């Protein structure tokens, strides 16, 4: 079992709020700018996709007025075309997003580190990852790959739960409340375990920020080592914001303008706490 008693979540959140005092506008602006940049590929490609789909729908409608119109054939043909366009554009969005995500994620982390260290955080920090583009891109790419592969492996219990549930329904020709509850509990437990396990990579960009001379794989391996005994606490820290998350949703999403900077600043404080950072220390000792 992980030892997580030494880290106080309340203390981390208190320090985060202290760092944000008088700088909320700056933090919100940096977060919004980073979010806009990361969303640009989706907006741009979606605009072209919508235009293409509307043209196809219009062609489909116009052919409906022809006397020799074969509804079944044309419908299947147009549906296939629309699906191909949507699938190709989804792939394009993923590729374009991947090209900018690493640099922007690093930039947001640098901004929050500068914020809690009170070392003149600036909105321009968001673009700092592009100065180290290759490494930030590779770190982010590896994070996606490792999380995807581990996600597949740790998703096996969920698949087993679902198969057992389906077999039970087919065999008994009935759905019991107990079976549904067991299914949801199994899925929830698997998701929680997955989230806790994947937090082993959470400090990779933070480590690279403090020592950008290290290799890409070293930043991930150091994160894994650094998070030993701290993954549960990290998960509980994230979970502690659930109440604020509900309020943010009830505010039609406006509350996230304050919640996300608060969460990111607290995460940066978590990194500070587990590394025992002191000013003028450039290399992290593990």
Molecular structure report:
The chain is mostly helical and 286 residues long. It has one domain (9-272). 75% of the residues lie in helices and 0% in strands. Helix 3 (71-116) packs across helix 11 (256-275), helix 4 crosses helix 8 (216-226) and helix 5 (156-172) packs antiparallel against helix 6. The longest helix is centred in the N-terminal third of the chain and has 46 residues, at 71-116. Residues 278-286 have low confidence and may be disordered. Keywords: Membrane, Transmembrane, Transmembrane helix.
Topology:
Layout: H1 9-20, H2 24-63, H3 71-116, H4 133-154, H5 156-172, H6 177-198, H7 204-210, H8 216-226, H9 231-239, H10 242-250, H11 256-275
Helix pairs in contact: 1-11, 2-3, 2-11, 3-4, 3-11, 4-6, 4-8, 5-6, 7-8
